[in-house]
Hints:
The chain is of the alpha/beta class. The protein has 9 helices and 6 strands, in the order E-H-H-H-H-H-E-H-E-H-E-H-E-E-H. The protein has 2 domains: 5-15 and 101-231, HAD superfamily/HAD-like (Rossmann fold, 3-Layer(aba) Sandwich), CATH 3.40.50; 18-97, DNA polymerase, domain 1, CATH 1.10.150. The protein has a 6-stranded parallel beta sheet with strand order 3-2-1-4-5-6, sandwiched between helices. Helix 1 runs antiparallel to helix 4 and helix 3 (61-75) packs antiparallel against helix 4 (82-97). The N and C termini lie close together (8 Å).
Amino acid sequence: MPIEIVGLDADDTLWHNEGQFQVSEQRFRELMAPWVDDEEVTSRTLLETERRNLRYFGYGAKGFTLSMIETALTLTDHRVDGRRIEQIIGFGKEILDHPVELIDGVADVVATLAERYRLVLVTKGDLFHQESKVAASGLADLFEHVEIVSEKDPATYARVLLRVGGSADRFCMVGNSLKSDVLPVVELGGFGVHVPYHVTWAMEHAEAEGGPRWVEVDGIADVPGAVAGLSA
């Protein structure tokens, strides 16, 4: 059966995102240098803290900021001063204030897809921040439905499809993360298009062999053709 609904991820699929977090993490490593002389130790500790905190804070800049503060307390044995804590909070605010920068070609591709399919935006992250980015992107009117979710797994996608009145075998998800955007939908019985981004958050890394239900493309411009190929 032909694909009727196309889901699109937002961060690092439609607009740039991860680079902002990497800049903040580098500044955080430099801030911790008086206590930790190995930046890899700082990054590893921060990642472990983020992983533990997902159940409490979810994804996004606010949870990242709280994890940086907790990591600073851990790495300094609670000796970090208030001025540095204030700087860490500033790192988070800068991420939240960063303007939305669409990836080249995205506006045309989304408009093309909207002419052929029902579009649904499915993204993880902080509700307020993601809503703000969707509004600022100029793409909101092209989507029939916007879903900001706490996790992307088969059960989440099943709930999204129930809300929009679609079935997995007529649904294709497009995104930069194999782990979150492609493999859960394929497991559910749908299709996927993987659009790699040049940097990927460590917790989104996954490896899998391609198959008849998902493909990897070089860039966003190749998505309409890839979806049509899967639908054939």
